[in-house]
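hey can u check if this looks right to u? its 346 residues, i copy pasted from the old doc so theres a chance i mangled smth
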Amino acid sequence: MNLKYILFLFVILILCDTFDIFAQTSRVVPDTVLIYSDMERALLNKSAAYALELTSYGDLPESIDSLTELRYLFISDCMIERLPKSIQKLQKLEVLRLDNNRLTELPTIPETWQNLKILSVSGNQLKTLPKGISYLQNLEQFNAADNSLTNLPEEFYTLTKLQRLDLSHNQIKALSPQFIALTNLEFLNVASNKLKDLPVNSKSPVNLTELYLDNNALEKIPPGVFLLSRLKILSLSENKIGRVPDEIGNLTNLQKIFLSSNLLSQLPETFGNLKSPEIIDLSENALTFLPSGFSKFNSLIYLNISNNKIDQLPVYILKLDSLTQLGLEGNTIFNLPKLPEKIQVF
């Protein structure tokens, strides 16, 4: 991995600030709650065991159902292949994280899991979601990334309190039209699937601010995306998109847009309608020029136009107030003007 690519990843992580909240125990367990890290100790203090976090533990005992006060249960990297049915009796669970195990199925969701707000099962071998998932009517965050899901059951779309949904790195070919029922959704990651479209229309989640559709089978940007006026992050890299329509100008609140590794040869002038973009990645396309509207992007910090067909860099790009990272590699730019010291080129 070369230094320029490391720099690219570093900048994206810092500027996007999209750390995985599903994996951060400290952000979901109150400071006043003791987190047990030993099953035996928790079983000895049942009435005070509100949170339990196990790693490299092995299969869970059936006696876990005696931890009736448990609200937060984290069982990650334990290589477990099945869950005991007794886990269904933990009626006070609010957070359940089962990431990075070897689960091929989950027990039927009991009707008594009404308190569950966060469920994370990423990094397993699930092909389907469990029966009874519609009972999770108070679920706000669901993470099933890195599994082998091919679709979602229709009952999933009844979980209308969902705010964050991560289904990335699965084998999903389509989402049901019932997707529009998830009106409280703010974050959707369906990157690295097999999607050709996204069922978005005027009744779609109006609160959506982050949408990740990278590495799918998109040949065009789903038209309904342009109705999501609150979007701040739109990621469409590694698809087969050949055109950005004029409607991109409707997404005036976009701060970060990723369109790298597509088939773009030009951008519409309405791209300049974006109010205050901070990150724009257009690398690995076939662009020959940038729209004049880029001259207004004084909040732009990171611009990557590497590996396109650009032969002239507009002078106004170098005058943007906030620009510090500029990707130019792989173009045929003649007479590159002198760059300000604050701009690092890669």
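The helical segments are 3-16, 39-44.
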